[in-house]
Design a protein that fits this description.
The complex is a heterodimer of chains A (111) and B (113).
Chain A: E1 5-7, E2 10-14, E3 19-24, E4 30-38, E5 45-50, E6 56-59, E7 62-67, E8 72-77, E9 86-94, E10 99-101, E11 105-110
Parallel strand pairs in A: 2-11
Antiparallel strand pairs in A: 1-3, 3-8, 4-5, 4-9, 6-7, 7-8, 9-10, 9-11
Chain B: E1 5-7, E2 10-13, E3 19-24, E4 31-37, E5 43-50, E6 53-57, E7 64-68, E8 74-78, E9 87-94, E10 103-104, E11 108-112
Parallel strand pairs in B: 2-11
Antiparallel strand pairs in B: 1-3, 3-8, 4-5, 4-9, 5-6, 7-8, 9-10, 9-11
Classes of the chains: A mainly beta (111), B mainly beta (113).
Chain lengths: 111, 113
């Protein structure tokens, strides 16, 4: 069974603060790790896809790191803004062409 | 706009019936993935096609089937519907396989009464 765990399930952060959350995935048969941003009433949108151990990706105030040996990835948001409120999903892609999603971290930015 | 089109947006049907959900991938994308999102559940992987061939299967029920046609659009067929099949069904496409980002459609909301 392919299990992708995300923590925390939900997070409240004051506007202007920085935050991070975790995605754990199987360390065997790894192919890629995806992060998506999912706003209410919309569809998930891709943030990053990482494939190599030690990969770091950045897009504006959001960045992500990848550790394939121990099976985890972190997503960081610097200086949270109200528009960052969303559910952040990670997804594990294995070499058998499956892309399995975690249940997400729901982020609420408090004004 | 992701470029992925799903129809219909909403579907209400009765138990025991059969429905077909349709997905047109983004232009140039060869892979199509289907996911089910039920209440309080994450995105559950159902099935994946690449250039017309089935490549990966998730926890898809035997009552469900799918195919990808030569023009790369895909259909998900759900039969003998049960109340528990009520969910949001997403299609996503990508240019390759696991290392390419997914582009999601807006989903089809299925309600079984």
């Amino acid at each position: 069974i392919l299990n992708v765990e995300q923590s925390p399930q939900s997070l409240h952060v004051q506007e202007g603060d920085s935050t991070n959350f975790t995605c754990s995935f199987p360390s065997s048969n790894f192919y890629a790790l995806h992060w998506y941003r999912w706003e209410t009433a919309k569809s998930p949108e891709a943030l990053f896809v990482m494939t190599l151990n030690g990969d770091e990706k950045k897009k504006g105030r959001i960045s992500a790191t990848l550790n394939t040996k121990e099976g985890y990835s972190y997503l960081y948001i610097k200086g949270s803004q109200p528009e960052d409120s969303a559910t952040y999903l990670c997804a594990f892609a294995n070499r058998d062409d499956k892309i399995i999603f975690g249940k997400g971290t729901r982020l609420h930015i408090l004004p | 706009d992701s470029g992925v089109t799903q129809t219909p947006k909403h579907l209400i049907t009765a138990t025991g019936q059969r429905v077909t959900l349709r997905c047109s991938p983004r232009s140039g994308d060869l892979s199509v993935y289907w996911y089910q999102q039920s209440l309080d559940q994450g995105l559950q992987f159902l099935i994946q096609y690449y250039n017309g061939e089935e490549r990966a299967k998730g926890n898809i029920l035997e009552r469900f089937s799918a195919q990808q046609f030569p023009d790369l659009h895909s259909e998900l067929n759900l039969s003998s519907l049960e109340l528990g099949d009520s969910a949001l069904y997403f299609c996503a496409s990508s240019s390759g396989q696991g290392a390419s980002p997914l582009h999601f459609g807006n989903g089809t909301r299925l309600t079984v009464t």
